[in-house]
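Our example pasted here:


***
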Amino acid sequence: MKKLLKIIFMYVLLFSYNTAISQDQDNPWAISLGINAVDYWPVGQPDPQGDLFDEFFNVNDHWNIFPFISRIEISRSFGRNLSFSVIGSLNRIDKFGDLRTGPNGSLQTNRVPDLTYYGIDGAINYSFTNSGKIEPFISGGGGYTWLDKIGSGTLNGSIGVKYWFAPKFAFQLQSTYKHVFEVYGFRHFQHSVSISHKFGGDKDTDRDGIPDEEDNCPDTPGLYAFNGCPDTDNDGVADPDDACPKVKGLEAFNGCPDSDNDGVEDKSDRCPDVPGLTTLFGCPDSDGDNITDSRDKCPNVSGPNENNGCPWPDADGDGTIDRYDKCPNTKGLVENNGCPKLSEQDKTLINDYAKTLLFSPGRSEIKDESKLVLLDILRLLNTNPNAKFNIIGHTDSIGDSKFNQQLSEERASAVRDYLILSGIDRSRLSSAGYGEDKPIADNRTPDGRKQNRRVEIILVN
């Protein structure tokens, strides 16, 4: 009894000393409640006990389990990973190892009348981590155990793990080996399953269950998932990080909404109720012409911005819009600016008409009787407004060659000037004279000289 009193006094003294330190350092308390199982078999002792760790998990044959709350542990932490615990436990023992029975010496559970088991222990615990949900630990210490009226001191070593399923609550598994030195004591294992709750010493100003030292919003009740900060609009974004804390939104937009789900948050969306395009600030573009429907005068038909989203008209349907079509009412070719290409027949007609033009002898004035021919030439040129022509004058060989050269140039210029005054763009016409240098007939005969006195209109493009 004196030995027991000494052990208890040492535990009280050590526990009081650590408590004083813990209070100074504002360290938390913890209390654990659970059930325990006592196994006398796998401890390395002779019958009725067995080899060390033999059948360590043979629950049915060797474990004495008290099915009610039978273990209480009170602990106090000091430092970052250390704590001191006082443990009390209670059990009923009806399995005490195995005995060999029968002629073959087979092992059977050694049944004993219900023996009362009491234990009080002290331990110093070391946790391998002080963060995260899983906390493995080891313990070392000693205690005193009674089996009915027989008591003995023990030297204890433990291994265990805690799973923190809530900020202050953990599920704890622990296995302890208790070594007895007295000959009248019995070595054994004691296993336990407990629920642990830590409390005290943690200031929680807003009473949200999260201590201020871990609470990012210590003055406002919040959620554990957001380190103690609130989420007023329940959108999964904590209020300090929520740009729209009172309106439910998306994490991608810092808690702000996107009502039409078009990838553009409402505050930047010019059409917040209609799905649209990011490039058009959330507004739709039905015809894909990069003009929002609200600005598009033809929202279902693609058109240029210069025409308010409507296609340019093409009256003759030749693929050249009217604004660029030199022949808007006549179907033509795109490469010819919407005008039809000059046919070989028209080329021949223009040149044939030009050859019939009449001039006064030795002069460049066009005779009046040639005006109808000029009208025919104008008609053909207007039908082909994109065509360009070179007007060339020729003479016969009668007279001075220098005079004939000058006369051919003047007659070609006279035809060009007449056509320009009649509405043909000057950029379409050029003129030249070759005098008597390029005859097409014999200048020694009257008919040949008549053929050589001519004007030609040649298509350039």
Summary: DSSP finds six helices and twelve strands in the chain. The radius of gyration is 56 Å.
